[in-house]
Amino acid sequence: MIRCPKCGKMNQDSSRFCNECGATLPQTRIRCPKCGTMNPIGNVLCMVCNTRLLPLDMKLPEKPRPSEGMSGGVKGISLPSLSAKEGTPEPTTLPDWMLGLTPESAGGPESAAADLPDWLTDMLEETTEISGEEARDVEEPLAPQELPDWFSALTEEAPVSPETPAVEESLPDWLADMTENVPDRSQTPPVMTEPPAWTAAAPPAETFPSSWNQAEAPAFVPEANADLPDWLRSIADAPTLEEPQSPAGLPAWLLANADAPVPVEEPAAPELPAWLLQGAEEIPHLAPESVKPTAPSSLSFAQEPVREAEQDWLSGILPEESAPVSPAEAEPDWLSGIPFEEPEAAPEPAPPTEAVPDWLSGILIEEPEAAPEPTPPTEAVPDWLSGILIEEPEAAPEPTPPTEAVPDWLSGILIEEPEAAPEPTSPMEAMPDWLSGVVVDETKSAAVISEAPPVAEEMPDWLQGLTEQAVSPLTEAAGIPSSPVITEAPDWLAGLEEQEKERPAPGAPVPLSAGEPSEPESAMPGWLKDIVPPAESVSGIGAKAIVVEEESEVEAVEAALFGEAEVPEGPPIIEEAMPDWLKDLTPTEMPQSPVVEEIAPETLARAEVPAWLQGLRPPGTGPLPSLPEVGAAAPEVPGAEGQLARAEIPEWVQALRPAAAAEHAAESPLFPDLVETEGPLAGIVGVLPAAPGVDMPVDFEPVPLPEIPEFVVAHAQRWQQLLEQPRGIKRPVAQQRARSGEGEMATRWIVALVLLAVTILGLLFLGDMHLSQALSKPPIEHLSTAIQALEPGEPVVVAVEYGPAEAGEMTPIAEALVEHLQSRGVHITLVSTLPEGTGLAQGLFVTSDVSVQALYLPGSSSGIAVFLNDDLKDARLLVVLTSRTERLRWWMEQNNASHPNAPIPMGVGVSAAVGPQALPYLETPVVTGWLVGLPDAVAYREFRNARDISLNRQLDVLLLTHWAALGLLFFGLFYYLARGKKGAV
Amino acid sequence: MGNPEILELIGLIVGAVLTLIIFSYLLGDHILYRWVLALLVGCGAGYVMGMALRFLWWDWLEQARAAESPLLKIYYFIPLLLGILLLFKGFSSLKILGRLSALGNIPMAYLIGTGAAVTIAGALLGTLFPQIAATGKAMTLRDFPWGLLRGIAMLIGTISALLVFSARTKDRDGDVKPVMLWVRRFGEFFIIVALAAAFAGAITSGLTLWVERWAELFKTVFYFIRG
Question: What ipTM was predicted for this assembly?
Fold first, then answer.
């Protein structure tokens, strides 16, 4: 059934238009053109014959608009399924807090700037187009389906240049911006790409790793970001690093939290950390001058195109110009670790690892190759990684066989001592602010790490720094106060720590202390060193998670990343095959992680949530709950052996932490001291719970339950008692006695045979026995008297209101009355409200010489009313012959209604079935007399001395059949009584 | 047309055969039985259609054609127009005519409105008031004491039977009020008696038809045997 959207009336499924109002009905089913099957709207193929239901170029219908007068909601409409491309929500359907984010709602890209906050607008004004000469080559752009969404989005409109990879163009803005101020940690600082404005303004260029800076970075064309949301587009159009960035250009939310203004220097060439360089050296196809980041081969990515694409998005973050940047200050370590492309002006080819991100290069073909001169790893490694890696800026990392099989990004987990890991001057300075707070400061790491609880030892180094407060030079430059770091490591990171502990370090373990030089053979980048305590070793992680064999790399990677305790079975790790940079990651000793609980909560500042971020909060929800006490210890992660130091979150990152949550954490009634216990956020305090905390509005008040009536409760209790009864106890269950087909047939045959016997024997052999005596009753006499009193020619109306099925019983009654009327010579008018009644009425006069014509009165009671008012004004008698109660009622009602003062006298003849029901109408003053069934018809004839033998015989046989039926009823009654309850239904 | 006696003979034979086929339902449902039922329904529908065309459409059209004044022609044309509009109600599933199905609501509204008005007036004046009066008149002292007792029984039975279907006899929880419990039981007894009487009348009608049919069959047989 289809409900009309206009009037709400239900119509059949096959109806196209409403029967009530004529409105077009939405089709809830589609008829198959081949087999005619009604299929649901969403089907493309018929579910019976697989015939295509929808044309190939058919557009999905629009939703019907409900009219104003619609009674209920939208009904009978089956919403068509939209494809992903068409499934873009309309701006009107978006919540309010998202309306401002979409280009459509914002009126398009042109008006996007008008809706941007001031700090973004300022950045837009400062943006300059990236020169196209530094556009990257796009060797083999990937097909969209091969790339993840974030890849494809980035590489969609990236300009193609023969020289520079196009992947750089598709770098996410937040990455591209990060490369603006990446410090040049490599010997050949590459060109940095245009960083996003929000990062260009806040962190200085020197805080970014130089490895981000790519000389071959493509021109960052604002037009390429036309499809991006406004808030990303503005970032994408941020100025390049070519222009000096002033602290004044920092957004307010960064300036407010920055400890000190970040000196903006010319962008330094990004440097790859040693551990990345080492891995890249072993990649044969990665020439120094065309270093391109590649995707891990062991992962289920595409091969080289994927790698390059993935590299491009990373290298694209790097600035175009390879402007020298002060190492360890211009770029964050974690950014420096991401590979980049060497700029054209680079005198020396950058090591392959420079262009290969850690997590990508490790999966590449790790064939031993002569590695180029390594770049200072500490300078190129982001700060958050420098603590893990033991940097070896000077010594050339020699490729080692074991490292071939070890993915770079996994090798980074191995705390390998760099061959020559110069102590970074200021790893914290090299780290971005948002990481500096996580990464353990050099100056403080040792002390803090030594105070770290055993739990921190189980965590990766770069995560361990999360538990320590860090001061980033960037934040200091920007004047952003240091913010507290996250003290609890997520499970997946903590799991790595446990895995590290389980395995011994294949190589010389390297302490993960930030900046502390480790053993020569484990070249840990400085940025990694800064994170990992020196005493701790992550060799266990590397040994456990990294598998030499290529086919198990994926599992190892995943195990290492996600803290899986199980190590894929395979050949043991061959240390010789491990790259040096991976070896360097292998810690020998894992310094203790800083004690989380010893960090005073008051030292952890809460970041101010910017207004634009606050605006993203869905309406109806309250402020985020405050974070629980910082001093809460992080949960122990199984498998982690505490060999990785926590990463230090830079202050500017900590500044992003919502300040309100921490302040009102204790006050919030919703999430008091809520600690997440599972998932990647396990151990983190203040994590918003699922639906109740998010969807429930601040002022939510549950609706009180209605009162349940007592009888409902009693019924429910009774049901419960019945259900709780053990099986052994017999429960009264109403069961329907199964009927046997044979018994029913036997009963039927018995009844039929008895009745047949009585009827046939009575009709054939009974003769005229006068078994029945038709008793004359007053109604019969009164009717006979009334007809006898009629004068000849007086109008009399005879209404024949029975059909052919009842003619066998009604014909004797009708013939008796009609014969009497004819004997009186009255004028008979035959009428009937039944079409077949007119034919039966004429059949009553077949034997007579009088030809009469019956009138058909259409319209049931309305026709009777018209007839009685117009055509029957002076009738003397109204004889109604009917076998249906409602017909009699119509005639009587209309007779009384049309002649309220003097209704027409009525004579009634009804069947035996109608008699008891019509009796209340018969015993009224209007009705002169009546006949009920065959006995009264015989009695009427007897009274008039017009006896009919055949009728008498039929009456006698009827009497016999009545006796037979009565006998059968009593027999059945006694039978079932004798059988007892079992036989009773 | 043909010889009436032959036609009558054919009618007798066909009637007898159809009667026997109907009686064969004793053996169970079968195709012949279904066929005869369909024949009965179809013949009745066809006869109704013929009667409607002959005594409604044809007579009305003849009168409309024979009308002299334009006003009289319009008088006869309006019901025809309403009847045509009513026909559109049966084409709601079609593409073009379906849009016109809403036009059938006009004559439908007229029919329902007038029928309701006539029915309500007749129910009030022809059933409600006379029945109330008849119920009261039953209590008469004419045939004392039996007449009075009969009237009292009729009055009590009528009122109690009506109360069986009334919601006033139940409380908020759905339970019957203790006071009305016995009244409802008394009314249910009268209802049972009335239904039993109706059932007995139906059995009588059925047996009457049964006997009448067998009588006709034997009459036909004797007609062929005796000539």
Answer: 0.86
